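Thread: S-adenosylmethionine complex, take 2
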Amino acid sequence: MGRANRRGGKGGRGGKARGPRTDPEGGDAATGRTDLIEKMDMHNERFSRYYKMQKLFGDTGTVAVEGAVVLGAEVEGAKAEGEAEMEADKPEGEKEEEESGEFEEMLSAFRRHLPTTFRIAGSRMTVHSLNKTIADVHVPGLNDVVFEGERIPPPVRIDWYPDGCAWQFNVPKKVLRKQPQFKKFHSFLVFETEVGNISRQEAVSMIPPLFLDVEPHHKVMDMCAAPGSKTAQILEALHAQDTSTSSSIPSGVLIANDSDNKRTHLLIHQSARLPSPALMVTNLDASNYPAIRVPRQTADGKPVPGKMDTLLFDRILCDVPCSGDGTMRKNIGIWKSWQPMDGNGLHILQTRILQRGMKMLAPNGRIVYSTCSLNPVENEAVIAAALKANPEFHLVDPSAHLPALHRRPGLHTWLPSIDRTATTFVPTYDALMASTTIDANTKARFVRSQWPPSAEEAKEMQLERCMRIYPHLQDTGGFFVAVLERKGEPSGAAVAPSSAASDSATATTDESATRKRQVPSEEEDVPESKRARIEDAEMDTTTSIPADSSIAAASVAALEEEGDAEMKIEAVDSTSATPDEVSAAPSPSDEAGPSKKDAGEKKVGGHNKKKKGDAGEFKENPYHYLPEDHPLVKTCLARLQILPTFPSSTLLVRNPPDQPIRSLYLSNTLVRSIIGNNSYQKLRLTAAGTKIFTKQEGGRKDKEEGVSAQYRILGEGLPVVLPFVREDAVLKGDLGVLRVFLESYYPLVRNFDEAFREQIERAARERAAMFGEEKEGGEAEEGTGSMVVRFSAEERDGVVLTHDLVLPIWKSSVSLSLMIDKKAKSALSLRLFGEDLMAKVTKTEGDGSGKKPEADIPVLDAADAAEIETEETSAIVEEN
Ligand SMILES: C[S@@+](CC[C@H](N)C(=O)[O-])C[C@H]1O[C@@H](n2cnc3c(N)ncnc32)[C@H](O)[C@@H]1O
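Output below.
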């Protein structure tokens, strides 16, 4: 999914347009919709007219498009002004002919309810076991469901998704709420989604990362990443070598960026489900992303003292903000609001983001560009502009990949409309400029690259290699994907490609003038403010987009249409227009937009708002790497029984140096290198690495600091830490033990079976002996603290644990606690025992005896149990 506007007021990508919802229980047999959208609302003359003019499904010959006027008759195939109107008067039968064709099929598909789709997330065995649970446990029970006399279709696998790990189903909400088998399946999905094992994601949104082809050593940039469903897929690919219970530390990196600060936090929340020492989150305008500096290395990974290089990426995802008309099945508000200036206004930003990505790509690297829009101005036009400016790139032939995915080739030609009513279509940019009937203000809103290249250029660029996904092809949303690769070395520069073996930055052996021009270097010691401008100017010399204020104005004015302030703000950022330039922008004509006064006020207001937000929003603490011999690190690792092989040189903290350390994060060496050589403020670094240890809060040792403080392994960090935990320190549990943990918050040690009790007591004695802990009265403490239990795969009394499960626990004086949050416990309980055992206990019940929990039991803190409701997780509850 995606968004163009931040809050989705218009239902753009990622935004949630609130359509006219009425009775959520209702349905419409004809459309299959369950939200009772009035069928009459699912029409938009502008949309129909615009896309008919694009001839998405081939030239339909003589049929005129009612209401569309093409400027000038000189262009082949175009209808002259007046002529189109005359043709619109043709008998209905003739128009029907076209409307009953594929175009109408597409429109009907857009009017149908979008199936719910999800994929099994995570890179570990969870994927396999969860998929098996769905196929073997849930689907058989859903095969023959009849509800109120109608057969309800069961969930089916999405056939083009690798390994059958994505599913779809399309049932009304009331079935999910009232039909027992579907109700059970729905609860299962909700819980697994909450804990991150399932990602509810639109099927088409799963496509771009599959074409990115990420490997664990890759340096990857996700330029417009929030809310993060594709980021999660990329992380899974980076962690492809993880095992069922432990995570690898990939040598590559994923920088997930989004210009919207709030949305970067959603992104962080989403990606916490797949903890990765290789993840960084930044909060920048992708169209102006700064060069990242890393120490130079030789081809075999040896440092070259005193030399720095610009980090180039092996893989870049540009899932850009767009008008989002491909999401109309879900964001029904788009039916009402859609107009062609949405796409026109985003073209420049989209092109700039893609071109910035191209500049940051390593030789032989790959970029995937995607939108959830069908508009060629946001799609093929962007690709054509970027290819023209960067001839060392080419479109990859994607036909052999995901063969079961039905797609249509990219367009070679299209016809932009220059007004919001989709009435006036202009065949060429030159025709627009030459027109004596179109005013200068309107002309100033457009750039040449919004029009198709010549037929020869389009052929040479192989624009047909772009992929168009239409909703009627496989019952999905609409989407556009293009895969671009750099043909070898950029001219004049020798840049060593990254090596699969080395956990190192991309090394360059020579920094030629050409490279420097493409990616400005910090070595050049240019002040940051100036550097951004230089970079802009440099980009603009290589693109067909002029960098002057009229373009800023064009973009802004275009986005002013229909008063979409949020979209406009992004465009102002993208063009780096100064407030003066913005307020000096020509106002749109009456026909094309709001009044001069309105437009002027909005521009200044919008710009100021963003500037103010920018200054105030970035309040993140810097990251500090701790020295390996830091006393706290040493005691913390010793207490947690962590092996000396643990990479403690990449442990970092976020608190100011004079404050007690609360949480410790782990990164990989490349992330460390990036943080160490770049200003975190310049990168607007919002997250790095993954949190693995946290100080015990809420217990008796609450006040203790420094080496005497107790730290525990976080559930989310355990897969990363586990390979370094001493094997003999990992306790062994079985399904019986797990059940005791899940039946109570703080089960007493004595409630566990003898074998487990003995292990606990032995571990506690060892710990007490090792650390000589004292109780307040002087007695030896009974080895309280963080422990780890491995529950081995087994089948017992019909309960199947398909793979080993390793979980953190806390041992207090007389009781234990499973240190995963309540939702994760419920999900586990439902998956294994078919019921939520936690639902039977309340927090005050403690061990079930009515006793209050012990004082030294840590309560999961807010950060651990963060329940930021993401659009994705709330959606599964809300929409189904
Ligand atoms: C299509 S959505 C991305 C969806 C995301 N890739 C996913 O799969 O969850 C587009 C995102 O671009 C962000 N955005 C808009 N303008 C941007 C810019 N100039 N630089 C970076 N991000 C931008 C928006 O905040 C939005 O989150």
